[in-house]
Amino acid sequence: MTRTAVLHPDLRKGAERRAPENALAEAVSLANALAGLEVVEGKVVPVPKPRAGFLFGSGKTEELAQWIAAEEIELVVIDGPVTPVQQRNLEKAFKCKLLDRTGLILEIFADRAQTREGVLQVDLAALGYQRTRLVRSWTHLERQRGGLGFVGGPGETQIEADRRALDERINQIRRALEKVVKTRGLHRKARAKVPYPIVALVGYTNAGKSTLFNTLSGADVMAKDMLFATLDPTMRSIELPSGQQIILSDTVGFISDLPPQLVAAFRATLEEVLDADLILHVRDISHPESEAQAQDVRDILESLGVSQAQRDDMIELWNKVDLLDDEAVSAAERVAGRHARHLVISATTGRNLDKLCELIDETVRDPILHETLNLPISAGEATAWLYARKLVISSDIKDLRNHLSVEWTHKQKEQFFKLHRAALERTG
Q1: What is the pLDDT of residues 276-313, one digit of tens each?
Q2: pLDDT at position 180
Q3: For 358-396, what is each residue's pLDDT tens digit?
Q4: Residues 72-100, mean pLDDT to the nearest whole number
Q5: CB of 316 within 8 A of CB of 291?
Q6: Which residue in 226, 108, 121, 247 sits closest to 181, CA to CA?
Q7: With contact defined as beta carbons under 8 Å apart, do 276 and 202 qualify?
C-alpha cells in the first residue's frame, strides 16, 4: 500500500459552492477509490495567493515537506489543478510522487474501465492529459536529437519527438473509437426499431444509480459505497407494472470539476443520455452538499447538449433517505412534494419505488390512437408488420384494398410509415 496524503488548496474568493472540508472529504474518498493507496491524512491548506512556481508559499511548502518526510508519505494528491512546473517543483521539494485531481481521476478510470470502449476512452483522456504535461515537466525532454541530412538546424528536441509520438497514438485511438461509436450507433438504430422508451439514470458519483438500476432491473451491476464504482454503461429491458416495456440505462457518475479530457472522451458513452426518452436524476439527499452536487450534474448535462425539453421533463430522485432521521425524511418529503417531478426514494429499502415506476409509466406512455388504414393487398410486408405487433383490431377486404382498424401509439405510427412509406407509395 502506498502511503498517501491528500491536500486541498483553499483558494476560495468569496462565496463558493462547496465548503473546503467537504471538498477535502470528497478528495479523500477519491483517493480511497484507487486500489493500492493508503490515505494517511488529509489537510485543507489555505492558499491566500497561488504561486506560479510552487502553488504554495515558500514557508508552507517547507512546512509540508517536513510533515511529509516525518509521516513517510510516498504520494501526495493535490485536490485541484497543478501546472507541469508546479508538479515538478513540488515533487522535488516533497521528495515524492505527486498527482493532481485530474491525474487521480484518470488513474481511477484506468483502473475501472472494463469494456474496449471504456479502455480506449480512458487511454485517449490520459494521453491528452500527458501531452499537456510535456511542457517543461522533465529536464531530459529539453535534449536535442540529430536531424537527418547534412544541412539544416540541429534537429528536433526530445520534447517534440515525444509530442509527435503521443499525437500518433492519440490519432490511432481516435480511429479505433470511431469504429466503436459506429457500432454503438448501429445498436441505437436497432433499438429504435423496437418501440421501447429509453430511460437513462444520471447523477453525481456515488449517488446510488447502480443500486437503483439493480433494484429495478434485477441486474448485478457493481454497486459499492465508493466514487466511480462503475464506469461502463449498462442497459437492461424492464417491464413496468402496466406491462409497458422500457430500456433502463446506467451511466458513469458525474463529479465537480470533471476533467475536460474525460468529458470529451466519454461523450460517445454519454450520447445514450442524449437519445433518452426520459432522464432520471439520482441525488444523494443525505449528503451535506446535495444541492451543489445536483447543480454540477445539471451543468454537465447542459454542456453535453441535453435539450431543455429533456431537462424540463427530467425526474429528480432524492435517494438514500434511509440514512436520514425521521424528522429529516419528513422535511425532504414536504419539499419534494411541492414539485410534481421530484420523488423521495431509497434504492436500498425500496421506499417509493412503486411510485417511481408509476411516474415513469405516466411519462413515457404514448396515448393509444384508434385509426383505420386503407392498404393495397400487395402491401403484404406492411400488413404483416402490423399483425406481428398485434396492432390490428379488425380487417375487411374490399375492391382489392385491405381496410384495417388499428390501435397504436404515435411512436409506432411514425415507425410504420418510416419503414413502409416508400413501398406503399409504389403500390398505390
Answers
A1: 889 999 999 999 999 999 998 998 888 878 888 888 88
A2: 75
A3: 999 988 887 788 999 999 888 888 999 999 888 999 999
A4: 93
A5: no
A6: 121
A7: no
pLDDT exceeds 80 at position 12: no
Contact 227, 206 (CB under 8 A): yes
